[in-house]
């Protein structure tokens, strides 16, 4: 099995028109082709590299990671004398990816990376996650290297980045017993002595907590209590054993990914970037990347859930025929597929926004941007900020819905431990929670409702060329957009923050559904293999009712009865 | 310390997914209907060679394959996984070779490649299943051989120590270099293709491929992209031992056997019955 080549919807994303721009920016017009023997010659060569390397990752995911998933889930990691020992399968997965030379996928070549755009990197996250969502965390934490590359000084970069490409793993150590969603409350102390920093304190719920390279959020400014007293550090967890793993949490799912409680005792560390900007700037940036990562992980879980369901529904016979022949079952499956395709379309649309603005960010470190470039950078950066919470929210919610339905398609067998769908169901559950709950994604997204950013983008999609066969769908979308507009107006004109927060999820959902419908129609119009036509229609049928439902709720709700819910 | 290792590799039809059209009416294999892949046990062999290279960094691993031009694909595949060089032995003169003629041609090519310390290959290819080519190469080179190898445990300047799979266990053998080693499918699987190597070598081509393809980046700075392609004229040989003429094997007929479940036997899941079944399956050579 190859989880990349068996899924043409992935390669399709590499053919998006914006890729040309992304590659040109990322590769600075292929300026490294004579410096590195693996750098691309031109645009086609770069995309061919993406394609072929994803094929390697697809093979490792389909052959090795997926087949290890069950034993890793059973075995789990262990703590042995304050260190984490991965399950055997986890170790194998990691070693294969190290040998394949794919860690550090998006890092610059000067540090041993592949300098891939975010699009293929995010795709790798989806593919790995389809094999094993828990392992996808260990793979995805190479995001930390991205943060080091972006913000740390040259010395720190040179010390740590090449090690990531050689397979040392990372962790981002943010949360503490009293600082979860509210990271301003972080207490772990960073103290400076003779020009060196030392860390002391406790971190909790740290994914892959015993990683070699750790990014730690710590209070560097004594006496402060808020975000402005926090700085970001990198600690080398390799030789001195000053970081001890106190325990590994016993979780519902993603059991292969060790979630650790850690004790830091005089751990030497190096400052990343500027003091006091730890939470305000760096963690926020890392968090956006991590949310996109969970989006990818969620789409991978959705795909796995769908694959398990469709295979079972084709094999399983009842009343003399395969159960997929029954409307109740095929409707369920087509809706699963539609949600999967919709969240994937949103994931890669968002990733392209991130790709463009990140590339400009990199260029800005080398030279001043022209006014046009600067305008574009701003535009894409704003779009990325607006779309990232949508991806995190929808992809993770759909992954859970698909995992639920996957068990439902399996009937009684799905409730037994014999089928993979029960593990997928458990693994999916964390997705709507970590890296910011769905509720917090709504908080991040609602401002783009009230400022009209989503509506503006929706109106742009409305103007784009589509195949004539989708005209009718677009008509329906235009009236759905009118519903959104009047719902936003109705809520916004009251100028009551509490009430806006109360209706926020409904409004954000309406916008998200409409955006995903457009993306599916646009993909279906661009594609000549009929990959998305059905999903475009099925999703729109579903979304239309959802949008109307939310619109009706908002229309009929008397703001004064908010107290009933308190 | 470093070694020159030649890994023999064959491109074979993928017999894992044999359909109804796998055989032609005349009883020969319908190669067009089956995807061409790197013979699985040759990949195990390549891994053993690459492990020696990991331990002794100056080591050179050269991949040698005899076959049609399209077999260059597995040479590239080998380069992606860590091999240093690729050699393709190709031409009409080699057509119709059985294992005797193949091993003769291969040994002529190896002699041309210069000093060699080890020749490592898969135990057998999944299309012919003869397991003869490796041992016959050893004979023609005048090298000792160790077959059914599961792991190369140690190599010194003079000798190699290997773990060998035998019917009811393993034995550890020591052999003198230069030597031929054939590797079992139970040995460690081959490492994956490496991303950077893939991007570096994906335009590697043989001379014939260069004539027919558009993109070509081969120049002085990129000479590593050249896959050596040798015809009969490039190797020192006696024509009567090559190709069909040099092949005494005559295929009388080939049958396409389609397995169908005719009789079934039900057993319960208790240890006694399972053990009895295993004994029966071993006795009639279904397994083991």
Descriptive tags:
heterodimer, A: about 575 residues, alpha+beta, Butyryl-CoA Dehydrogenase, subunit A, domain 3, Butyryl-CoA Dehydrogenase, subunit A, domain 2, Four Helix Bundle (Hemerythrin (Met), subunit A), seven-stranded mixed sheet, two-stranded antiparallel sheet, about 60% helix, B: about 290 residues, alpha/beta, Rossmann fold, nine-stranded mixed sheet, 7 helices, about 25% helix
Per CATH, the class of the largest domain in chain A reads Mainly Alpha
Main beta sheet of chain A: 7 strands, mixed
Q: Which fold does the CATH topology of chain B refer to?
A: Rossmann fold
User: Can you give the helix content of chain B as a percent range?
Assistant: 25-40%
Multimeric organization: heterodimer
* Helix fraction bin of chain A: 55-70%
- The general outline of chain A is globular
In angstroms, what is the radius of gyration of chain A? 23 Å
Rounded average pLDDT of chain A? 96
Order of helices and strands of chain A: HHHEEHHHHHEEEEEEEHEEHHHHHHHHH
Structural class of chain A: alpha+beta
Shape of chain B: globular
Instruction: Output the CATH topology of the largest domain in chain A.
Output: Butyryl-CoA Dehydrogenase, subunit A, domain 3
- Segments of chain A where pLDDT lies below 50 for 5+ residues? none
Q: Strand order across the biggest sheet of chain B?
A: 9-8-7-10-6-1-4-5-11
Quote the average pLDDT of chain B. 91
**Per DSSP, what share of the residues of chain A sits in E-state strands of 2 or more residues?**
5-15%
Alpha plus pi helix count of chain B:
7
Tell me what portion of residues of chain B adopts beta-strand conformation: 15-25%
Question: Can you put this structure into words, describing what you see?
Answer:
- Chain A has 18 helices and 11 strands.
- Chain A is α+β, with helices and mostly antiparallel strands.
- In chain A, the strands form 3 sheets. In chain A, strands 3, 4, 5, 6, 7, 8 and 9 form a 7-stranded mixed sheet that branches.
- In chain A, a hairpin with a 2-residue loop joins strand 1 (78-80) and strand 2.
- Chain A is globular, with a radius of gyration of 23 Å.
- The model of chain A has no long low-confidence stretch (mean pLDDT 96).
- Chain B is an alpha/beta fold.
- Chain B is built from 7 helices and 11 strands.
- A 9-stranded mixed sheet of chain B has the order 9-8-7-10-6-1-4-5-11, sandwiched between helices. A two-stranded antiparallel ribbon of chain B has the order 2-3.
- Chain A binds chain B through residues 37-41, 48-49, 52-53, 56, 59-60, 96, 99-102, 114, and chain B through 191-200, 202, 217, 222, 224.
């Amino acid at each position: 099995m190859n989880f990349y080549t068996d899924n043409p919807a992935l390669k399709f994303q590499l053919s998006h028109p914006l890729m040309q721009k992304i590659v040109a920016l990322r590769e600075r017009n292929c300026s490294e082709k004579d410096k590195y023997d693996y750098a691309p010659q031109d645009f086609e060569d770069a995309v061919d590299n993406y394609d072929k390397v994803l094929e390697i990752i697809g093979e490792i995911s389909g052959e090795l990671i997926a087949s290890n998933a069950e034993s890793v889930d059973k075995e789990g990691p262990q703590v042995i004398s304050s260190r984490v020992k991965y399950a055997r399968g986890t170790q194998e997965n990691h070693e294969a990816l190290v040998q394949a030379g794919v860690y550090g996928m998006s890092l610059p070549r000067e540090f041993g990376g592949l300098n891939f755009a975010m699009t293929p990197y995010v795709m790798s996250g989806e593919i790995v996650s389809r094999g094993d969502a828990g392992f996808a965390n260990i793979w995805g934490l190479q995001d930390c290297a991205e943060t080091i590359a972006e913000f740390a000084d040259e010395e720190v970069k040179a010390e740590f980045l090449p090690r990531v490409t050689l397979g040392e793993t990372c962790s981002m150590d943010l949360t503490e017993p009293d600082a979860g969603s509210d990271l301003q409350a972080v207490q772990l102390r960073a103290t400076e002595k003779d020009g060196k920093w030392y860390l002391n304190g406790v971190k909790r719920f740290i994914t892959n907590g015993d990683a070699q390279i750790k990014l730690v959020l710590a209070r560097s400014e004594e006496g402060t209590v808020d975000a402005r007293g926090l700085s970001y550090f990198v600690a080398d967890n390799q030789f001195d054993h000053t970081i001890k793993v106190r325990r590994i949490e016993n979780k519902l799912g993603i059991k292969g990914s060790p979630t650790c409680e850690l004790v830091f005792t005089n751990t030497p560390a190096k400052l990343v970037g500027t003091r006091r900007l730890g939470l305000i700037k760096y963690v926020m940036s890392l968090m956006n990347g991590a949310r996109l990562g969970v989006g990818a992980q969620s789409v991978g879980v959705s795909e796995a859930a769908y694959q398990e369901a469709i295979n079972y529904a084709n094999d399983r016979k009842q009343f003399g025929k395969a159960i997929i022949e029954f409307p109740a079952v095929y409707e369920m499956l087509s809706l699963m597929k539609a949600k999967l395709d919709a969240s994937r379309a949103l994931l890669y649309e968002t990733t392209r926004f991130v790709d463009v603005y990140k590339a400009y960010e990199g260029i800005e470190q080398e030279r001043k941007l022209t006014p046009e470039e600067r305008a574009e950078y701003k535009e894409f950066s704003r779009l990325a900020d607006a779309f990232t919470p949508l991806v995190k929210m929808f992809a993770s919610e759909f992954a859970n819905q698909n995992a639920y339905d996957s068990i439902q398609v399996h009937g009684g067998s799905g409730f037994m431990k014999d089928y993979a769908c029960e593990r997928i169901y458990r693994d999916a559950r964390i997705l709507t929670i970590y890296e910011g709950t769905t509720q917090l994604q709504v908080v991040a997204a609602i401002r783009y409702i009230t400022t009209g950013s989503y509506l503006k983008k929706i109106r742009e999609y409305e103007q784009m060329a589509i195949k004539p066969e989708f005209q009718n769908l677009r008509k329906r979308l235009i009236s759905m957009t009118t519903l959104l507009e009047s719902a936003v107006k109705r809520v916004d004109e009251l100028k009551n923050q509490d009430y806006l927060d109360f209706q926020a999820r409904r409004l954000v959902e309406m916008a998200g559904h409409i955006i995903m419908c457009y993306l599916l129609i646009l993909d279906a119009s661009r594609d000549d293999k009929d990959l998305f036509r059905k999903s475009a229609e099925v999703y729109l049928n579903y979304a239309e009712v959802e949008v109307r439902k939310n619109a009706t709720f908002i229309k009929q709700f008397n703001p004064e009865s908010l107290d009933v819910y308190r | 310390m470093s070694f020159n290792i030649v890994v023999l590799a064959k491109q074979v039809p993928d017999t894992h997914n044999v359909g109804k059209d796998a055989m032609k009416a005349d009883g020969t294999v319908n190669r067009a209907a089956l995807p061409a892949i790197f013979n699985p046990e040759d990949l195990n062999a390549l891994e053993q060679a690459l492990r020696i290279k990991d331990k002794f960094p100056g080591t050179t691993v050269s991949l040698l394959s005899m076959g049609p031009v399209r077999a260059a694909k597995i040479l590239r595949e080998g380069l992606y996984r860590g091999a240093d060089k690729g050699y393709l032995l190709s031409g009409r003169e080699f057509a119709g070779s059985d294992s005797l003629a193949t091993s003769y041609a291969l040994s002529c090519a190896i002699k041309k490649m210069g000093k060699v310390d080890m020749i490592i290959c898969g135990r057998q290819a999944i299309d012919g299943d003869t397991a003869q080519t490796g041992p016959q190469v050893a004979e023609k080179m005048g090298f000792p051989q160790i077959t059914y190898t599961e792991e190369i445990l140690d190599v010194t300047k003079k000798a190699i120590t290997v773990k060998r799979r035998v019917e009811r266990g393993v034995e550890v053998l020591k052999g003198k270099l230069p030597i031929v080693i054939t590797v079992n499918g139970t040995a460690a699987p081959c490492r994956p293709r490496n991303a950077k190597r893939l991007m570096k070598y994906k335009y590697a081509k043989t001379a014939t491929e260069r004539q027919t393809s558009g993109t070509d980046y081969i120049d002085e700075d990129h000479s590593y992209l050249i896959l050596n392609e040798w015809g009969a004229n490039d190797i020192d040989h006696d024509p009567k031992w090559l190709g069909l003429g040099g092949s005494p094997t005559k295929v009388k007929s080939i049958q396409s056997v389609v397995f169908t479940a005719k009789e079934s036997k039900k057993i319960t899941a208790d240890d006694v019955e399972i053990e009895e079944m295993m004994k029966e399956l071993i006795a009639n050579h279904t397994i083991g």
